[in-house]
Amino acid sequence: MKEVLVTIPVQEEHRGYLEAIGADMHFTYVNRKEAISGRFLRGSCFGMKWTLSQDIENGYCRNFMKGMKYLIYLYTEKQESEDWILKNDLYFNLYTSNLPLTEEDKQIIFQIDEAKITKDQHIETKYGIGVVRNLSSGCKTYLNVIKNPDKIVSVKECGRNVLTRLFCLDGIHIYMDYPGRFEIGENVQIMFNDKEIVTGRNGYEKWWNKEYARRFEDDL
User: What is the 3-state secondary structure (H, E, C) of 130-157?
Assistant: First the structure.
């Protein structure tokens, strides 16, 4: 599948959404037929149009394209297990930080923390030069998720911007024990605790409403 980097105009009414998902003026485009068939690129937009407004109007552009399904595995009951990452800063500093950074990793680091990776693998921010262990907890959590796909990662320390990005990904395993306010695409499916599957923001909120009613009844 060939990828082509194109520059498209961003209209003011779309800027808020793009900032929420960490996008800029550049998007990776793939053939729409290939996208519908299930090919997935993290942080990409899919379509054959040339302007962002046309793509949004036709439902092609946005991370959550019509006709595609994304599945998030979400766990709400904490477990102490080697398959779980509950202390993101510690795990990142000990393990994930030693893994090589891809270009995709470098892009997301800049989008979340506005940090550039130098040639000697340091980070450069407006505050000066540091090491990757100086990244924010939210950024470390995102990297823990994408670079440790066999782990269930706590996202309790993530803000809206990181959570919105995480819910653009397919097949990730995360832990949160209370709901957050962030954007969820209408085609995103969420499996709670390997049992119940809901769809989109509405399904997410309805599940949590029932969960809080259950916790109240059980005096939890």
Answer: ECHHHCCHHHHHHHHHHHCCCCEEECCC
Q: Biggest alpha carbon distance in the chain?
A: 56
> What residues have CB less than 8 Å from 126, skipping those under 6 apart?
114
The angle, 0 to 180 degrees and rounded to 10, between the axes of the packed helices 103-113 and 137-147 is 160
Which residue ranges in the chain fall short of pLDDT 50? 1-67
pLDDT of residue 169: 92
* DSSP symbols for 45-84: ---S-SSHHHHHHHT-SSSS-TT--EEEEEE-S----TTE
Q: How many CB atoms lie within 10 A of CB 165?
A: 26
Whole-angstrom distance, CA of residue 108 vs CA of residue 192: 26
Predicted local confidence at residue 30, as pLDDT: 35
